[in-house]
Design goal:
- The chain is an alpha+beta fold.
- About 45% of the residues lie in helices and about 20% in strands.
- It has helices spanning about 1-5, 10-25, 40-45, 50, 200-210, 245-265, 275-295, 305-335, 345-360, 365-390, 400-465; strands spanning about 65-80, 85-100, 115-120, 130, 145-150, 150-165, 175-185, 195, 220-225, 235-245.
- Strand 5 and strand 6 form a beta hairpin.
- The chain is rod-shaped, with a radius of gyration of 45 Å.
- The two termini are about 60 Å apart.
Length: about 475
């Protein structure tokens, strides 16, 4: 190269060769080297003093050129997910690789030494950190760097990262979370430090799956990496996690489904019996205690209410509605016929006409026919006796017998009115009873529809969760 520079008349090919070789040296950081004689520790220490003295600046020959730092992460454990505070705690290894243009040597001149370990505080290291870090850094510090003869420097740093993450718990316990870890330099811009990725994303994800040691509530789905907003000074790793829902299915969904199934079967009991009311009250009390016990298992956050929380609220609402409906029917049947008011016209039209058709309710008339037939028979007897007991036809029987017949006739008329009032009140009570039975059937159908719809929702949610 010196000969080519000395001869001004060198050809263009020689000049081009000089330029290419200079670029080669600049790219691979071999423009400066460590001089050493042999592979003894003292010689290496003496040779590296000038490298240690340059730790205050980026180890590049031209400070106008940016330093390229390639990074990769390995996820070793998922320590916890805090839905209330929107925090993700992970333990990972950060690997950083860069070239130090002043730490290169020829292994032939240095006793075939290929690489050495150097204290971290003696050499320049990039200030790469996690932007979402929100807690005190409790990560252990490794004391050494790994320097190869080509000037390649590797630094493996364990990180216990407590990062902020926007957690969505609407599909709990079948939720999938996407948390981002953005790495960047604290002070240096893209003109000073450029970040790059070491391995491919597939290799990173596969390696993280193999090295992930924790088998807790969360499992790793995939890791996606790329530049943040297409800026080469920041790299974002998207860690996609999904929850293992088996614990919540066993402790939440199955007991709640059993309680609701028992409540649905309780509709087979007669609605006007005391046993059904006491049974529903006991069931409602048990479901309330169940919710209080499992309150700590449900995630608490201000971002929204999980779907399973809505499910529990609707189940509790249906239990209360079923109990109120039972109390309503019992009140109708046990309040006494004289106190039973007539059914309002709007209630008769809405319930006995429209809702009865909606639930396909059919009136059973065999008992009512027997009652009405007996009432008509009794009325006919009264009418017949009343017709035959005209006082004027029996005046010849004497005043005492006439007075007796008048008394009997008035008593029979009073009995007739009493019986007519009784059957009228009985008909009103039967109308209220039919309303109660129709409402009972309607709530029963709503129960079944609700259970079917929510089973389909959970099934679709489970399917989308399972296939990711």
């Amino acid at each position: 190269m010196e000969r080519c520079r000395a001869h001004r008349g060198c050809s263009a090919a020689c000049a081009s060769l000089v330029l290419v070789f200079s670029v080669f040296l600049q790219d691979y950081t071999v423009t400066s080297q460590v001089t050493c004689n042999g592979g003894e520790t003292e010689h290496f220490l003496e040779s590296f003093k000038h490298v240690f003295g340059k730790k205050a600046f980026r180890p590049v020959k031209d400070l106008n050129q940016p330093m390229v730092v390639n990074i990769s992460i390995t996820l070793y454990a998922i320590l916890g997910v805090n839905e209330k505070n929107q925090l993700l705690t992970t333990f990972l290894w950060l690997r950083m690789v860069w070239f130090n243009e002043f730490a290169w040597w020829d292994p032939k001149d240095c006793g075939n030494v290929q690489n050495i370990s150097v204290p971290v505080e003696q050499m320049w290291t990039p200030d790469v950190f996690v932007l979402q870090f929100v807690d005190e850094d409790k990560s252990p510090q490794l004391p050494y760097l790994f320097v190869e003869h080509s000037g390649k420097v590797q630094y493996r740093k364990p990180l216990r990262v407590v990062s902020s993450c926007n957690l969505s718990i609407f599909r709990f316990p079948f939720d999938i979370q996407n948390c981002s870890l953005t790495f960047g330099s604290f002070l240096d811009s893209v003109h000073h430090i450029k970040l790059g990725l070491l391995p491919s994303v597939d290799n990173t994800e596969t390696f993280c799956r193999e090295t992930l040691t924790s088998q807790g509530e969360w499992e790793l789905v995939k890791i996606e990496s790329g530049f943040s907003d297409n800026v080469p000074e920041k790299i974002t790793f998207n860690i996609i996690l999904k929850r293992r829902p088996s614990v919540y299915v066993v402790n939440l969904l199955i007991p709640s489904a059993f309680l609701m199934l028992i409540d649905v079967l309780s509709f087979n009991l007669p609605p006007h019996t005391v046993d059904r009311a006491s049974f529903k009250m006991t069931l409602l009390l048990g479901y309330t205690v169940f919710l209080l016990i499992l309150n700590d298992l449900l995630p608490a956050t201000a971002s929204g209410t999980p779907l399973i929380g809505i499910y529990f609220s609707l189940c509790l609402t249906l239990l209360v509605i079923g109990l109120l409906e039972t109390v309503f029917v019992m009140n109708i049947l046990h309040q006494g016929s004289s106190k039973c008011p007539a059914v309002p016209q709007w209630a008769r039209t809405m319930v006995l006409h429209y809702l009865a058709k909606l639930v396909c309710y059919k009136k059973i008339d065999h008992c009512d026919t027997w009652t009405l037939n007996n009432s008509f028979t009794f009325e006919s007897v009264i009418q017949e006796k009343s017709v035959n007991l005209h006082i004027g036809d029996y005046n010849h029987l004497g005043p005492h017998l006439t007075s007796l017949l008048r008394t009997i006739s008035s008593d029979l008329q009073a009995m007739r009115k009493l019986v007519e009032n009784y059957f009228e009140q009985q008909e009103i009570a039967e109308e209220w009873l039919r309303m109660g039975l129709i409402l009972d059937t309607l709530i029963y159908r709503v129960y079944l529809l609700f259970m079917l719809v929510y089973a389909l929702i959970l099934g679709s949610t489970w399917g989308s969760w399972y296939h990711i």
